[in-house]
């Protein structure tokens, strides 16, 4: 079985695959102090709970937090007796090289989204990923990552308001019925929700204006469905795009190593 690990700045997701068949997925907070033994206790208990035997033969990791990779390598060595593929490291091949400014370290999550989107749609794609940051990844006709946009994440924006302004509470993002808020929480929700709708529309429209071919827009990340409700922002919403991209890069390495 293949274990795909996607570490974002907020959450870490483990996802188990048997060939191309999805088996199970588990989510935990990203903490760089977590040791290999702690990962193992958490993962093995959840697998047992699901009744899935742990037969991990291969592991692939994408991490936007470099510090967590060390303990994940120890986990793989100690408990799975394998060396993980780590996206962005020289010994993990990419199907297509990114075309960006020399010296740029593209976020591995964006390279993985690119591989997943190209495999499903065949290029000319904008991937909009609602994570800690909201990223727009432009996937060229040949599957290369050719750049994009990084905007503050939805929850990060709400958290920033709360942190910086004494009178603003912590609030969760929802879709407000009206735009004119008649209390503080409603005003904040309106600012972030409708501000974000505008951000996604404007940024994707301008990317399309700069690009010389038709493009599809794919939304991913936990908050994509909320923003898509009642608005035409995306051509597709694919929750599993990052995990799919990890399986694509893993297969490419197996076939080309
Ligand atoms: N389905 C969801 N509903 C509401 N908030 C969500 C959902 N999924 C993720 N979030 C929130 O979105 C933010 C980004 O989460 P996540 O997508 O896991 O980011 P990352 O990949 O950067 O770790 C977090 O604050 C998380 O709590
Ligand atoms: C932009 C990001 C912080 C997004 O991370 P995430 O929201 O998935 O935690 C990550 O892709 C990153 O650290 N990128 C490095 C810079 C770049 O991609 O150009
Ligand atoms: K992201």
Automatic annotation (TrEMBL):
<dbReference type="InterPro" id="IPR043129">
    <property type="entry name" value="ATPase_NBD"/>
</dbReference>
<dbReference type="GO" id="GO:0004594">
    <property type="term" value="F:pantothenate kinase activity"/>
</dbReference>
<feature type="binding site">
    <location>
        <position position="129"/>
    </location>
    <ligand>
        <name>K(+)</name>
    </ligand>
</feature>
<keyword id="KW-0067">ATP-binding</keyword>
<keyword id="KW-0808">Transferase</keyword>
<feature type="binding site">
    <location>
        <begin position="6"/>
        <end position="13"/>
    </location>
    <ligand>
        <name>ATP</name>
    </ligand>
</feature>
<feature type="binding site">
    <location>
        <position position="184"/>
    </location>
    <ligand>
        <name>substrate</name>
    </ligand>
</feature>
<feature type="binding site">
    <location>
        <position position="132"/>
    </location>
    <ligand>
        <name>ATP</name>
    </ligand>
</feature>
<keyword id="KW-0479">Metal-binding</keyword>
<comment type="subunit">
    <text>Homodimer.</text>
</comment>
<comment type="pathway">
    <text>Cofactor biosynthesis; coenzyme A biosynthesis; CoA from (R)-pantothenate: step 1/5.</text>
</comment>
<feature type="active site" description="Proton acceptor">
    <location>
        <position position="109"/>
    </location>
</feature>
<keyword id="KW-0418">Kinase</keyword>
<keyword id="KW-0630">Potassium</keyword>
<comment type="similarity">
    <text>Belongs to the type III pantothenate kinase family.</text>
</comment>
<feature type="binding site">
    <location>
        <begin position="107"/>
        <end position="110"/>
    </location>
    <ligand>
        <name>substrate</name>
    </ligand>
</feature>
<protein>
    <recommendedName>
        <fullName>Type III pantothenate kinase</fullName>
        <ecNumber>2.7.1.33</ecNumber>
    </recommendedName>
</protein>
<keyword id="KW-0173">Coenzyme A biosynthesis</keyword>
<keyword id="KW-0963">Cytoplasm</keyword>
<comment type="function">
    <text>Catalyzes the phosphorylation of pantothenate (Pan), the first step in CoA biosynthesis.</text>
</comment>
<dbReference type="InterPro" id="IPR004619">
    <property type="entry name" value="Type_III_PanK"/>
</dbReference>
<keyword id="KW-0547">Nucleotide-binding</keyword>
<dbReference type="Pfam" id="PF03309">
    <property type="entry name" value="Pan_kinase"/>
</dbReference>
């Amino acid at each position: 079985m293949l274990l795909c690990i996607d570490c974002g700045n907020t959450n870490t997701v483990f996802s188990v695959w048997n060939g191309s068949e999805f088996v199970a997925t588990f989510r935990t907070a990203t903490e760089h102090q977590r040791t290999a033994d702690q990962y193992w206790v958490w993962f093995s208990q959840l697998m047992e709970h699901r009744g899935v035997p742990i037969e991990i033969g291969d592991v692939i990791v994408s991490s936007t937090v470099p510090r967590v990779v060390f303990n994940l390598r120890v986990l793989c060595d100690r408990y799975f007796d394998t060396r993980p593929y780590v996206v962005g490291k020289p010994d993990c091949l990419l199907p297509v090289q990114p075309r960006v400014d020399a010296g740029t370290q593209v976020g591995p999550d964006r390279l993985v989204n690119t591989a997943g989107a190209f495999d499903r749609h065949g290029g000319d794609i904008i991937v909009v990923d609602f994570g800690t940051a909201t990223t727009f990844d432009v996937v060229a006709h040949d599957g290369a990552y050719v750049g994009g946009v990084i905007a503050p994440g939805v929850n990060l924006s709400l958290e920033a308001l709360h942190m910086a302004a004494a009178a603003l509470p912590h609030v969760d993002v929802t879709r407000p019925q009206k735009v004119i808020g008649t209390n503080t929480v409603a005003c904040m929700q309106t600012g972030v929700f409708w501000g974000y709708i505008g951000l996604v529309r404007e940024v994707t429209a301008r990317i399309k204006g700069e690009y010389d071919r038709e493009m599809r827009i794919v939304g991913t990340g936990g908050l994509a469905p909320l923003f898509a409700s009642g608005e035409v922002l995306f051509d597709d919403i694919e929750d599993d795009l990052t995990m799919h991209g990890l399986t694509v890069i893993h297969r490419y390495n197996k076939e080309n190593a």
